[in-house]
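Take a look at the protein record below and tell me what you see:
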Amino acid sequence: MKKLAATLLLSTALAAPIAAEGITQFNIGLLGGENAQDRLASNECFRAYAEEALGVPVRLFTPADYNGVIQGLIGGSLDMAWLGASAYAAVWLNDPEAVRPVLVKTNLDGSYMYYSIAIARTDSGITSLDDMKGKSFAFADPNSTSGYLVPLIEIPEAGYSMTEGEYFSRVGFSGGHEQTVIAVVNGDYDAGVVWADGQGEWEDGYNSGALRKAADSGLVDMNDIVEIWRSKPIPEGPIVLRSALPQDVQDKIYDLVANLHETDPDCAYGVAAGETAGFTPIGHDAYETIIAVRRSQMN
């Protein structure tokens, strides 16, 4: 019955012949982490569903970095995005009324946590951070939770300074999670951090995340890299909607996302960067800890 109800909801939305009132276009921001073409391809199915449901053109935007999506949401030029927790914190700290978190991707076990995972080449001989003295280390993006904020705090807490030259020979930004995978595989950095749910098989790139996307696309053979560090669990970032959107628009998009896993599993796989149990409601309270951490880094 649940699947039937979800199907009927999607069918009703797709059949709506009247454009949503109050908007002439709906803009979706796609956070960085993989190349723009792959981001567009992974989300095209959802774009088409949203366009049918709203009756207005729906556009996908792929800024070069996380900040492009953050500023688009703050400025009101973007209507929707799937943010990391730190990116959501950045938007909220700038304007608490700009967006509202509505849904979060859940793992196959029903949780919505993931990890910052440091990787190195298998043939490098590096198996832990203890082996990284005098080696180079890559972050992803300054606005990434798992690719910057969390490892920036947790790795020094474990006894390894992130100040360049003190423990690591070089510390830099690759530009995104996919770029980190490529940089490590190519030897541009000895190690770097990416995001993953940490569930499933290593050989598959786990169930979801940057490693799964890289493995699926053939960018990496997981046998060629090894996990050398893992953070504490991190709350998965929220799907946010621009607060000023008309309520009927918000409701239609909410229903599409909430039911996507049941109505089109293949589409959900692309949108969620791998296997998922679907999307579940989430609110601001889930991110107060990350907001506090992000605020502390501003001082």
